[in-house]
Here is the input.
Amino acid sequence: MQKKIYFVVLLVLCTHIITSCKKDYLKSDQFFKDRITIEKVFKSKVYTEQWLAHVYEEFKGINADVASKGLTPHNFADDMYYGDRDKDYDPSKNELSYNMFKMGLYTENDKQGTWTQCYRGIRNATTFIQNVYMNVEMSPVEIEDYRGQARFARAYLYWQLLRKYGPIPLLPDEGIDYTESYDNIATARSTYEECATYISNEMLQAAKEMQKLGMNRGQDGSARPTCGAALATRAKVLLYAASPLANGNTSNFATRLVDDSGKRLLSADYQEEKWAKAAAAARDVIELGVYQLYWVPIQETGQDATVIPPKDNNFSEKSWPAGWANIDPAKSYAQVFDGTLQASGNPELIFTRGNNQQGEGIDAMVIHQLPRSATGWNTHGLTQKLVDAYYMNDGRDAPGKDNEIGRGNGTERVKGYVSKEDFDAGKYKPLREGVSLQYANREPRFYASVAYNGSFWTLLNETQERNRNQQVFYYRDDNRGNGFNSSNAYWLRTGFGVKKFVHPSDTYEGGSAARVIPKAEPAIRYADILLAYAEALNELDGSYNIPSWRDGSYAISRNISEMQRGIHPIRIRGGVPDYPTTVYSSKTELRKSLKRERFIELMGEGQRYYDLRRWMDAPVEEALPVYGCNVLMNGKERDLFHQPVAVWALKTTFADKMWFWPISHNELKRNKRLTQNPGWTYND
Here is the structure.
């Protein structure tokens, strides 16, 4: 306890050093006393480690990448929604509802903890980087590794700011001269390109500093990074910098996003080489040979036997990693997220905060995904657009896909339902009796992710056996309370729930979160890097020679076999056939397919909101009406229930002010050179 108290005192003193603006402070006796205290901290290994742990505390809460809406609504977009915390249904709620979020009805005061936490962490990480050399209890190799961890933290916090707010001020590495006035130390926003270059270079340096001890450090939930985490973050940053929002953006919004001198912060100059650099950075991660997609062996017997995809005369004939002949695609995908694996045992988890979420982590998401019959809140659901995006098990589009939003191909949705005879004969697995045939013969990831009407929930942590193994329907007259209820908000607006992240044992019986298996947050996953590699390569017309992170270089071009290095593992593990040759031969068609692949593979992982913006697809995709089942229908009207309708309870729009989050008025007052994002107001 004494050590903890002493450490808190040290942090307060050192924060005082950094933030004091008194002109005489640096000349005072107090400055030298505080400097001695800093030396005492960084000469001690224990206190040095505690300082670094304090930096990583800033990664929690609102800075989580994957979490429930109480922390970050950015985990919800046109794929996944939340229906609770809506004052339209409960006037006592004064929180950011999904509709307010989607309609841009948040203010400059909402969800601003990101700015505060990130810059506080950046400041403390800089102090660490500048002073860890003093340590007398660690070897030079350890000091270098710890410096790399702090550098990663600082760069990652900048990355979180850039992604949310757009171009932000980059603080001097050597600190600020606090003898100057506020006006003189005010810092303008750097351009997006400057921010991305800085973060990329810092991540590269961090990877080099961590390569001796942090090349294969276990992901044990401590949120301590590895060399691979630094390289993977770098790849993501460079992918965003190459994307249309930051590369060749000539929109009206881009012309209005400027610093205090009128300089544009989003480049109007398109540079194809940025895609090549992003591809090379993703390949750096691949070439480490550390990460791979997780897979589960085929299960040939039992009630939970593998549903084997149909033969495609390619992947179906080969064993993993060349094919799916010996794996269970549905379980292979589901178990990455549902808590079956500890963070340290997940081969595709590159960076995670582990289970260390505050209040509204993935366990809270699951509690809101569980049906009312499992005492869950039954309010997180999926859109028809996302449900339609999943392929059939033979790789074709689902009949009737996207008809309602004007993108249909002339086919109609499948009619009919699984009969008792069908179910007894094992037809349409894993569907049960009474389920719409719209959900039959879909790809394995569909069944691992979507809670369709009549899906099966095992709920094995229920204490009473009669409450386990439920088939859950969302009809209005459902006697278990899972359907529409005009008296509360606890019903699925679209009639589609979320199975992803839900373990077979999970339930919320008695309101006990302990009945939900802990899940490690997938902040950066290898599948994301593989898809980034393919996406970046696809955008190239020319050939480039890009240095690797260590020695040598890569010849980077739009090479189909290289793009398949990123695509094939995802499709194989998902149990889906390869794209046809016509898709690979067309940059436009492959771009569409890769966007769809990310939509499916990364659903619910905090990616879609930002993907739509970096692609500049948000004005269309975020504004489309949300469709779903007609949840006002009862079981006798099941044909009408399964006919998609526009969901009156979910609103959509997109405005220019929604490209980036607004900067708070307090920060604008504090930093006179800081400019607000277009569409938001600031009155001095």
Summary: The two ends are 45 Å apart (CA to CA).
